[in-house]
Amino acid sequence: LRFLDAGESHGKMLVAILEGFPSNVPIDIENINKQLQRRQIGFGRGTRMKIESDRIEIISGVRGGKTTGAPICISIKNKDYENWAEVMDFQKEYNEKITIPRPGHADLNGFLKYNLDDIRNVIERASARETAIRVAIGAICMELLKFFDVKFISRVVMIGNIEDFSYIDSYNEDLINKIESSPIRCLHKDIEKKMIKEIQIAKEIGETIGGAIEVIAFGVPVGLGSYSFYDRRMDYLISGAMMSIQGVKAVEIGNGIKSSKLYGSEFNDKIIFEDGRFSRKTNNLGGIEGGITNGMPIKVRLFMKPIPTTRREFETFDVHGNVVKSRYERSDVCAVPALAVIAENVLAYEVAKEMINKFAGDSLEDLLISFEHYINRVNRG
Ligand code: EPS
């Protein structure tokens, strides 16, 4: 399974081609759109999200409501393009060039690397707008994963200094409802209030604020990934994918950070064998041992930096080396709740990719036969 995507933040649309996806998987477009909507909401977003109401268009690879096995081509329109048509015109040069790079963004490095004369070219492709199409790709993967009973939960566990690292060990609807009804995907109402306050304060003083999210995949079978090669390790694949999400500066799998302070016997997840099935007593390792999934929920935390664009003005340099006042470009104050939804869908893609690798089949039916055979072997009950 692989995909390529393209598109600028204020261009006509975002597009992607997903290749290697099995045939006969029912695709309910409303499920994909629901994931896109979830990504758009969240306290702290800027005005752009009021302009967009992201919806997917399927261009190829799905017919009669089911995947055909052919490449799946999708697009998401940028409604804001109407306001940017002149700036983004592919032929006619736009004369107002951006020459003041914003620290913390790709602006300066991209400008130098690609030998550009306008930072706009960097901003447009480096933008986190690209995560919309990645969510759509992940949402298509979720349609496949439903057949294997793989489910996801994501939530915000930190905004600035306010934390909620409470423990979640099972998937349940009550939990989901609480998270989904929170404007910042926080599980506990009292903490939610404090988190919202943190964002409000940042906004009032012209600042931005970061935080952390947790994503958990339930129902992933034992045996995805491998210890055999570095690039087949599941933690390598997941952490690489997660670090590629704009703004993410650290990834933790399971209780990875705490692990460095504990004794081996304290941290180990003890093996248990009940009703013919192996399991673990705890899940400190976040569902991955030796680069292979162990059947426990995959648990990942992502830490996001504050968005670099601040309304607060400061002195900086333009691309010619002159001292200038910083340039402000419309932005979000906090995008941590959106990151949770993005991470869920990015994880769905990585899990689906490894499921397809392991249970190799060109159709959903072939995958399921291979999966059932394997599950019967590893569960001896
Ligand atoms: C972004 C800047 C803002 C965000 C954008 C990411 O967009 P704009 O410059 O149009 O105000 O809203 O995020 C999205 C558009 C999105 O869909 O998430 C940036 O510079 O990365």
From TrEMBL:
At the top level of its lineage, which domain of life is listed? Bacteria
Instruction: Give a GO cellular-component term.
Output: cytosol
Source organism of this protein record = Caloramator mitchellensis
Q: How does the cofactor bind to this protein, according to its record?
A: Reduced FMN (FMNH(2)).
Family of this protein: Belongs to the chorismate synthase family.
UniProt xrefs under InterPro entries: Chorismate_synth, Chorismate_synth_AroC_sf, Chorismate_synthase_CS
| NCBIfam families per the UniProt record, alphabetical | aroC, PRK05382.1
Q: Which Pfam families match?
A: Chorismate_synt (PF01264)
Question: How does this protein assemble?
Answer: Homotetramer.
Which taxonomic lineage is given here? Bacteria, Bacillati, Bacillota, Clostridia, Eubacteriales
Pathway given for this chain reads: Metabolic intermediate biosynthesis; chorismate biosynthesis; chorismate from D-erythrose 4-phosphate and phosphoenolpyruvate: step 7/7
Please give the biological process terms from Gene Ontology that the record holds.
amino acid biosynthetic process; aromatic amino acid family biosynthetic process; chorismate biosynthetic process
List the protein's name.
Chorismate synthase
Q: Which cofactor does it need?
A: FMNH2
Write out the function statement from the record.
This reaction introduces a second double bond into the aromatic ring system.
Query: What EC number(s) does this enzyme carry?
Result: 4.2.3.5
Reaction catalysed? 5-O-(1-carboxyvinyl)-3-phosphoshikimate = chorismate + phosphate
Residue positions binding NADP(+): R39, R45
Q: What class of enzyme is it?
A: lyase
Residues bound to FMN: R125, A126, S127, Q246, G247, G290, K305, P306, I307, P308, T309, R330
Where is coiled-coil annotated?
A: none
Is Transferase a UniProt keyword of this protein?
Answer: no
Q: Which CDD domains match?
A: Chorismate_synthase
Keyword terms of this UniProt record: Amino-acid biosynthesis, Aromatic amino acid biosynthesis, FAD, Flavoprotein, FMN, Lyase, NADP
- What GO molecular function terms would the record report? chorismate synthase activity; FMN binding
